[in-house]
């Protein structure tokens, strides 16, 4: 190992080796069982001793040896300017991450390491592609120490405190609880996390068990003549005959029960997933930024530095909106990698969200906000294009001689498109204030993005041929870690927004941007 | 959003470069048309003539239109790039947001002493903005100008 003198090369906690070995053995169970079946299938006890036991010993021993080697060959060095990790048994890799480039440090505890009191420390750089630096596993105290260290080094010599970060420095060390989810809230959240995918999968699995039915349910020939009760009776002959004898009401009831069962599976899986993920959710204001802890079996502990937040998104769902629940998410460069989930308030009331928003230095729009909508021409064009498609459908129906069917696309489809486009126009709007750009969109499940004007990276005006003819344009912003666009603004309004945003981008001191972006020169 | 307003046009050699690029495409098209012509019995020229018309349009008109649709400006410490004949886009990147700068030259660009300037930003959208059709000297000068602005900003 070629660590430099002065800084000690440290190893991860020795128990890492135990955790890894157990995890690896867990993965080996299935192959061992398969192997056991293959060997024992036609063998006797002698074969068992001759082949199977040595196989298990070699596989298990090899794993232990490899886990041990990996543990001895992984070292990390906490330097003055960077963290270096050297790893690899056969091929060696050394990675160095400068402190300034670390977006945030998250601690994750999966169930097994948690038993041992170990954490996985992940340094998020926003490099994307899952190429973040992570150390597994360290003692909890060591994880905390590293996090503190990264934080203090980042703000140490050379790195002047960011202007937007001053409020967090002014704050005392005390953690200040911003938002927490009670068990009841978590379960309520889970009820809204109903997943159709799970229902579909459950239905598919249920289909696999049709062999348990005493009749051929998918044999369509038997069902061909539904009205012929005798044929049905034949199909359900034998043990299934009583089903036919139950009468139509009982059969409908049965179908309902089946649907309810699937629905219940969907709801229950949503609750379970949500409880596992969100249990004990706590969002705190610390001197380092927003600190979030959550998880029932796998605990995660994430700190989002406030000044790294590029934008906030407030979202909701079609149904949960009726109950007044919204979600708040932070957009930062670390969210580029996709591994990090930056939900700040996954499920909360608007006043709870407002409290968190104000702590991040952003603000929700108020009555004084000067909202602007897109150009009506944009929505009219969208409607006309949709209508044209519907007319084509009607034309096809007419050509085939179904004049009644021809009415449906034009009248109903056209009406629905007009309705949708009008509401979309009404709810898609944007506002500028001194520091921020607000955009809202969607009418069924409205979402809003609050972006810091000075943290945007570029502005682009885009026009397709129709837009040029009709005088509107899209504005797309370069946002670190997310997408932000305004659709169908009138050209004058698009240019006004662009000029305003560019002015606030230029007015801003670059050092702050350098602080806000990981790769700032 | 007009291309004309105070934008610097690209190097005139860019028209020739576009023409050469399109000529290569036109040759492929004409080769395909020739094969089709031989394969399809009937009047001579039923495929050839339309293909020839398309090729002529591509060689005479398209480079000019593209050239005139493109432009850039460095005014006010911002790089502005306008492009697109049918789908127009107009991108502005303040110098302060530039993360790094590339000056690239393809084999054809080398022949015409042209270069492509690419600036990279931290944004997810428009992570890199490319400006082709600059004379190599201009591209290097622009790179230096942007770099100087960044260095001054960083202090």
Automatic annotation (TrEMBL), chain A:
Range of residues in the leader sequence: none
Keywords of this entry: Membrane, Transmembrane, Transmembrane helix
Transmembrane residue ranges: 21-39, 51-69, 186-206, 252-276, 382-400, 406-427
Ranges for domain YdbS-like PH: 71-149, 281-340, 425-499
Database matches in Pfam families: bPH_2 (PF03703)
The UniProt record lists the keyword Transmembrane helix: yes
Protein name: Membrane protein
TrEMBL record, chain B:
Keyword Disulfide bond assigned: no
Positions of the YdbS-like PH domain: 67-145
Transmembrane intervals: 20-40, 46-64
InterPro entries: YdbS-like_PH
Keyword set, alphabetical order: Membrane, Transmembrane, Transmembrane helix
Pfam family, one: bPH_2
Protein name: Membrane protein YdbS with pleckstrin-like domain
Taxonomic source organism: Qipengyuania citrea
């Amino acid at each position: 190992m070629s660590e430099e003198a002065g800084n000690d090369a440290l190893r991860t906690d020795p128990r890492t080796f135990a955790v890894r070995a157990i995890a690896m053995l867990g993965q080996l169970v299935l192959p061992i069982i398969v192997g056991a079946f293959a060997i024992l299938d036609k063998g006797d006890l002698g074969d068992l001793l001759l082949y199977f036991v040595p196989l298990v010993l070699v596989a298990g021993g090899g794993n232990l040896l490899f886990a041990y080697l990996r543990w001895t060959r992984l070292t990390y060095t906490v330097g003055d300017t960077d963290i270096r990790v050297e790893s690899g048994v056969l091929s060696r890799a050394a990675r160095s991450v400068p402190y300034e480039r670390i977006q945030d440090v998250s601690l994750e505890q999966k169930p097994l390491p948690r038993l041992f009191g170990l954490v996985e420390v992940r340094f998020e750089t926003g490099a994307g592609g899952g190429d973040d630096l992570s150390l597994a596993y360290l003692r909890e105290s060591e994880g905390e120490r590293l996090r503190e260290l990264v934080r203090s080094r980042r703000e140490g010599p050379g790195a002047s405190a960011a202007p937007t970060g001053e409020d967090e420095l002014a704050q005392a060390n005390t953690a200040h609880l911003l938002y927490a989810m009670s068990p009841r809230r978590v379960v309520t959240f889970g009820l809204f996390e109903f997943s159709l995918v799970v229902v579909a999968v459950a239905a598919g699995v249920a289909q696999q068990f049709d062999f348990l039915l005493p009749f051929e349910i998918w044999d369509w020939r038997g069902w061909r003549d539904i009205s012929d009760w005798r044929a049905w009776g034949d199909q359900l002959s034998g043990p299934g005959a009583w089903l036919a004898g139950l009468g139509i009401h009982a059969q409908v009831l049965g179908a309902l029960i089946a649907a309810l069962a699937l629905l219940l599976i969907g709801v229950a899986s949503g609750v379970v997933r949500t409880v596992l993920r969100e249990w004990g959710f706590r969002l705190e204001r610390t001197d380092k930024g927003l600190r979030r802890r959550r998880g029932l079996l796998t605990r995660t502990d994430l700190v989002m530095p406030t000044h790294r937040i590029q934008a906030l998104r407030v979202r909701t769902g079609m149904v949960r909106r009726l109950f007044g629940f919204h979600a708040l998410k932070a957009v930062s460069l670390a969210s580029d990698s996709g591994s990090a989930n930056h939900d700040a308030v996954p499920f909360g009331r608007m006043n709870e969200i407002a409290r968190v928003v104000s702590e991040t230095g952003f603000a929700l729009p108020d009555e004084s906000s000067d909202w602007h909508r897109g150009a009506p021409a944009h929505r009219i064009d969208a409607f006309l294009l949709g209508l044209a498609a519907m007319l084509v459908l009607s034309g096809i129906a007419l050509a085939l001689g179904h004049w009644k069917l021809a009415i449906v696309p034009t009248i109903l489809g056209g009406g629905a498109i007009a309705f949708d486009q009008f509401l979309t126009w009404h709810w898609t709007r944007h506002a500028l204030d001194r520091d921020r750009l607000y955009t809202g969109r969607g009418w069924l499940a409205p979402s809003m993005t609050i972006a810091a004007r000075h943290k945007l990276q570029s502005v682009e005006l885009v026009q397709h041929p129709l837009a040029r003819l009709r005088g509107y344009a899209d504005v797309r912003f370069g946002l670190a870690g997310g997408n932000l666009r305004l659709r169908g603004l009138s050209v004058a309004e698009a240019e006004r927004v662009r000029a305003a945003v560019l002015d606030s981008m230029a007015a801003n001191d670059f050092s702050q941007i350098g602080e806000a972006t990981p790769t700032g020169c | 959003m007009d291309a004309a307003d105070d934008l610097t046009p690209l190097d005139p050699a860019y028209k020739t470069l576009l023409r050469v690029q399109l000529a290569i495409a036109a040759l492929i098209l004409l080769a395909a048309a020739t094969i089709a012509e031989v394969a399809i019995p009937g009047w001579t020229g039923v495929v050839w003539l339309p293909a020839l018309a398309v090729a002529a349009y591509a060689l005479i008109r398209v480079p000019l239109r593209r050239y005139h649709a493109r432009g850039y400006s460095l005014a006010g410490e911002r790089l502005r790039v306008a492009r697109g004949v049918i789908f127009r886009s107009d991108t502005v990147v303040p110098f302060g947001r530039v993360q790094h700068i590339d000056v690239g030259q393809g084999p054809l660009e080398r022949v015409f002493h042209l270069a492509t300037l690419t600036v990279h930003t931290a944004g997810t959208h428009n992570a890199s903005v490319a400006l082709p059709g600059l004379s190599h000297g201009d591209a290097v000068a622009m790179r230096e100008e942007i770099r100087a602005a960044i260095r001054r900003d960083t202090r």
